[in-house]
Specification:
- Keywords: Transferase.
- Residues 55-393 form the Aminotransferase class I/classII large domain.
- Its cofactor is pyridoxal 5'-phosphate.
- InterPro entries: Aminotransferase_I/II_large, AON_synthase_class-II, PyrdxlP-dep_Trfase, PyrdxlP-dep_Trfase_major, PyrdxlP-dep_Trfase_small.
- The protein is of the alpha/beta class.
- It folds into two domains: 19-59 and 302-411, Aspartate Aminotransferase, domain 1; 66-300, Type I PLP-dependent aspartate aminotransferase-like (Major domain) (Aspartate Aminotransferase, domain 2).
- 40% of the residues lie in helices and 17% in strands.
- The radius of gyration is 22 Å and the shape is globular.
- Bound molecules: 4'-deoxy-4'-aminopyridoxal-5'-phosphate.
- 4'-deoxy-4'-aminopyridoxal-5'-phosphate binds at residues 117-119, 122, 142, 144, 188, 192, 217, 219-220, 248, 250, 258.
- Residues 117-119, 122, 142, 144, 188, 192, 217, 219-220, 248, 250, 258 line the site of 4'-deoxy-4'-aminopyridoxal-5'-phosphate.
């Protein structure tokens, strides 16, 4: 039975309500599910074509580093491709313990638990939100945190992006209505679409004043920000004011996998109660070894953080000089506001034609009509790469009418 039966058929779903999908159909542009691989040093091959990779989260440029890939290859040969089971049962290798120790040392927490993906690390947060607890979540939090919160048994309260004054009011109201409820504040450290930072000083103050626990998803900022690369909390000098960190190895640490780091009793509790840990095969050997190697390199080579942050600054300045709006970005995630879905699709294609791969982002990741081209830079990008990205934005922008045509004498 493949055809749709009638109006009651649960499979009577399609993508026609998505403005982004409609724009893709109308323009014939396909920004998604393209086949590609990174070739190193900020470049990639997209369906046979060499391009500058300006659309991935490998901020420190470690996923193709020979030291990382060699460590992964060795672990693959030694331990096989998979653990074929969950951590609790047969899925714990010495590498899991080693990585957990390294992450806890790096962040200065009592303990850490490694999870198969960053998404699953955030789903595990559900275990900290019990019946009778109230969780307060920034409206721009990542989908995985949103899902983790939804899976929790407690009540969910959303606050507008980074609106800590509103959050204060909501916390006060909650305390008045339910004085015995446990309270948890949950936020991304660095927001994945806007490239801005959470207001951690205000959040820690609110957590202390209202007796709430604070959970920070450091997926994008751990490895990148702060003098030692420990993330947004170190950037603000507030490492000891965060109760639980979640994070991933898929951005700064060149691998795939997730983690939770915090007090030993919380991490132990999560190991036995978070369903995304208990009921999923553990991180595979190659990914573990890659993560361990990358963590060591990230800590030992601070030039990578400095380089990528400086590149991002130069990228924003260059884009603004061309007349683009890069929003509140202060990090290597630089969203370029385009507007409607059709222009965004055309712009994405024009950039690819100019030899630069970026990310086209539409609703629901951003509000309807506020489509962006999300550009990311890597420590391994050269100054020539940066110039190529900016030249592509100038040429592509002219093609789709976002950048004025050059005056005649400049063309000549
Ligand atoms: N948190 C944030 C803020 C993210 O952006 C992402 C992935 N884009 C994740 C968590 C999930 O991480 P992973 O890709 O390792 O599952």
């Amino acid at each position: 039975m493949t055809e749709i039966q009638d109006a009651t058929d649960a499979f009577r779903k399609d993508l026609s309500s998505s403005t982004f999908v409609r724009a893709m159909v109308e323009t014939g542009v396909r920004p998604f599910y393209r086949t590609m691989h990174m070739t190193g040093a900020g470049e990639a091959v997209v369906e046979g074509r060499d391009v500058v990779m300006a659309g991935c989260n490998d901020y420190l440029g470690l996923s193709t580093d020979p030291r990382v890939t060699a460590a992964a290859a060795e672990a693959l040969t030694r331990y096989g491709a998979s653990c074929s089971g969950a951590r609790t049962l047969n899925g714990t290798l010495p590498l899991h313990g080693e990585l957990e120790g390294r992450i806890a040392d790096f962040l200065g927490t009592e303990a850490a638990a490694v999870v198969t993906t960053g998404f699953q690390a955030n789903l595990a947060v559900a275990a900290m939100i019990g019946r009778g607890d109230i969780v307060f979540s920034d409206m721009s939090n990542h989908a995985s945190l949103v899902d983790g919160i939804r899976l929790g048994a407690g009540r969910r309260v959303l606050y507008p992006h980074s609106d800590t004054a509103r959050l204060d009011t909501l916390l006060e109201q909650a305390t008045a209505a339910e004085p015995t409820a446990g309270k948890v504040l949950v936020t991304d450290g660095m927001f994945s679409m806007d490239g801005d930072l959470c207001r951690l000083p205000a959040l820690t103050e609110l957590a202390a004043r209202h007796g709430a626990r604070l959970v920070v998803d450091g997926a994008h900022d751990i490895g990148l920000l702060g003098p030692g690369g420990r993330g947004v909390a170190e950037h603000f000098g507030l490492m000891d004011r965060v109760d639980l960190f979640t994070g991933t190895l898929s951005k700064c640490f060149g691998s795939t996998g997730g983690f939770l780091a915090g007090p030993a009793h919380v991490v132990d509790y999560l190991r036995y109660s978070a369903r995304s840990i208990l009921f999923s095969a553990s991180m595979p050997p190659a990914a573990l070894a890659a993560g361990i190697a990358a963590l060591g390199i990230a800590a030992a080579e601070p030039w990578r953080r400095r380089r990528v942050l400086a590149l991002a600054e130069a990228l924003r300045a260059g884009l603004r000089a061309l007349g683009y709006d890069t929003g509140d970005s202060v990090t290597p995630v630089v969203p370029v506001l385009i507007g409607d879905a059709t222009t965004c699709a055309l712009m994405w294609q024009a950039l690819l034609d100019e030899g630069v791969f970026t990310n086209a982002v539409g609703a629901p990741a951003v509000p309807e009509g506020r489509c962006v081209i999300r550009v990311t830079v890597q420590a391994t990008h050269s100054d020539v790469h940066l110039e190529r990205i900016l030249d592509a934005f100038a040429a592509a922008g002219r093609r789709v009418g976002l950048v004025p045509e050059l005056p005649a004498q400049a063309v000549a």
